[in-house]
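Hi, here's the filled form for the chain we discussed.

Project: internal
Contact: R.S.
Residues: 230
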Amino acid sequence: MTGRYLYCLLSDDVVPPRGLRGVGDAPVELRRQGGLACWVSPLDRVPDPTVEEIRHHNAVVATVLAAGHTPLPVRYGQWLADDSFLAERLHAGASDFLRALERVRDAVEFGVRVLDPEPAALAPAEVPSPEGPGAGTAYLRALAARLESERRIDLRGREIAESLRATLGSIVRAERIDALHSQHGIVSIAHLVERSGAEAYRGCIDAFGHDHNDLRFFVSGPWPPYSFAA
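And the returned structure, exactly as it came back:
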């Protein structure tokens, strides 16, 4: 019996383009259960988590977005043994799925990475090995210094994110803020933005970056709303 590989959920019956193929080079099909629709492919097993297959998964979800609909993406690797298991999964989670679909309706995701080109004062200290005579104390001190440095970076990132959100105002429907612990990283922000506000969103980001020219702002998107699917 052939299983069903799940890509995304939809609130409307959006038919996949003819000839669209996804994970495992399998055709993409529309399935419906109650008030939910979804795109699936017939597969006989859970696919391997390769870069190529993950790209195929994302390409299918992006096809929905390109067609003018906002899907509720599911994470890679969601395989159900047959149509009855798929129907059970959709029925059991229907209320949560419908709420999430309403949250992302007519919206897209943008990502903003904020970097400091000269982060020397905030760069986390290297933590030495806790081995050898007297190394334990040095290790604990260095670890404490690194944690304090990361705490200051995180605080700075949240302040930047809050200031940016105030500038964007009602253009942004929701946001997710994540620490960006790298050599130059400060913060990574995901924004859920109305499709109709995408141009205004980019303009606000450009203006904010101009006013904070000591930092670097890298914008990506629009994407399917993976960060807001849960």
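Let me know if anything looks off before we file it.
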